[in-house]
């Protein structure tokens, strides 16, 4: 496995990401924290573009757990049937809305444990919500971050929890909050899975990947 990059290199890499994009944003549309939870839960094995298309009308009708319950499972299915695993996801959206109403007064909780207790909300979804809404330096490791971490040594690890730990332990603290989005955007648009655009990469001189695509 590739070695963890030294601190000084990581500092330089994230300084460059910051100069390029000081306030990186996620690309999942939402209008409040509840719709953020739903959008992230729907995004498993789906693209952000696909989820945004489906939630555009859904969130106009149902932007609170109460309104989602009023819409019902069949109504949710009608809106999200273009997304993979839509039946199961619709079920979870209703169940998590019910739990928010029954146990949290209709509000989205801000602790990891409470978030992960919601149906359809795993560690990754909880981390995205903690990071994007509650501004915790939580690191949601998706397929892009996992690939980049192990390709470059920015945050290597044999599984997502190890990669998450590598980010928390090694990336300079001032970059922790935005590290998640910088890495996702870098993986989505530059350090792509099959054909990384190394010729147009702002950290090429610092990257040890041996099969650079020049
Ligand atoms: S140089 Fe290539 S492999 Fe290295 S980070 Fe940039 S795009 Fe990825």
Helix/strand layout:
Layout: H1 7-20, H2 33-42, H3 48-61, H4 65-80, H5 86-104, H6 112-116, H7 123-132, H8 143-152, H9 160-170, H10 176-189
The structure holds iron/sulfur cluster.
Iron/sulfur cluster binds next to helix 8.
In words, what does this structure look like?
The protein has helices at residues 7-20, 33-42, 48-61, 65-80, 86-104, 112-116, 123-132, 143-152, 160-170, 176-189. With 214 residues, it is mainly alpha-helical. The chain has 2 domains: 7-24 and 138-206, Helix-hairpin-Helix base-excision DNA repair enzymes (C-terminal) (Endonuclease Iii, domain 2, Orthogonal Bundle), CATH 1.10.1670; 33-132, Endonuclease III, domain 1 (Orthogonal Bundle), CATH 1.10.340. Helix 2 (33-42) runs antiparallel to helix 7 (123-132) and helix 8 (143-152) crosses helix 10. It is elongated. The chain starts with 6 loop residues before the first helix and ends in a 25-residue tail after the last helix. The structure holds iron/sulfur cluster.
**Cα-to-Cα separation, first versus last residue:** 23 Å
Relative strand content: under 5%
Share of residues in helices: 55-70%
Mean pLDDT: 95
Annotated CATH topology of the largest domain = Endonuclease III, domain 1
Architecture of the largest domain in CATH? Orthogonal Bundle
Please identify the top-level CATH class of the largest domain: Mainly Alpha
Cα shape: elongated
Q: Label the structural class.
A: mainly alpha
Q: Please work out how many helical segments DSSP would assign.
A: 10
Molecules bound to protein: iron/sulfur cluster
Low-confidence blocks of residues? none
Number of domains: 2
- Provide the CATH superfamily of the largest domain: Hypothetical protein, domain 2
Rounded radius of gyration (Å): 18 Å
Main pleated-sheet profile: none
**Element string (H = helix, E = strand):** HHHHHHHHHH
How many distinct beta strands? 0
């Amino acid at each position: 496995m590739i070695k963890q990059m030294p601190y000084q290199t990581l500092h330089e890499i994230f300084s460059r990401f910051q100069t390029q994009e000081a306030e990186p944003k996620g690309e999942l549309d939402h209008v409040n924290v509840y719709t953020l939870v739903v959008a992230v839960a729907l995004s498993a094995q789906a693209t952000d573009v696909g989820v945004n298309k489906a939630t555009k009308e859904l969130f106009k009708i149902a932007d609170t757990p109460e309104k989602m319950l009023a819409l019902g499972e069949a109504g949710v299915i009608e809106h999200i049937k273009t997304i993979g695993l839509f039946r199961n996801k619709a079920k979870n959206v209703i169940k998590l809305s019910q739990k928010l109403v029954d146990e949290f007064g209709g509000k989205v909780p801000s602790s990891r444990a409470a978030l992960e207790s919601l149906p359809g909300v795993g560690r990754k979804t909880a981390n995205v919500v903690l990071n994007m809404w509650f501004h915790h330096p939580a690191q949601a490791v998706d397929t892009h971050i996992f690939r980049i971490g192990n390709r470059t040594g920015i945050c290597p690890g044999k599984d997502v929890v190890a990669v998450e730990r590598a980010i928390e332990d090694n990336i300079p603290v001032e970059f922790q909050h935005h590290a998640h989005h910088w890495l996702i955007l870098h993986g989505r648009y530059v350090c792509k899975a099959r054909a990384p655009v190394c010729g147009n990469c702002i950290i090429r001189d610092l990257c040890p990947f041996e099969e650079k695509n020049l």
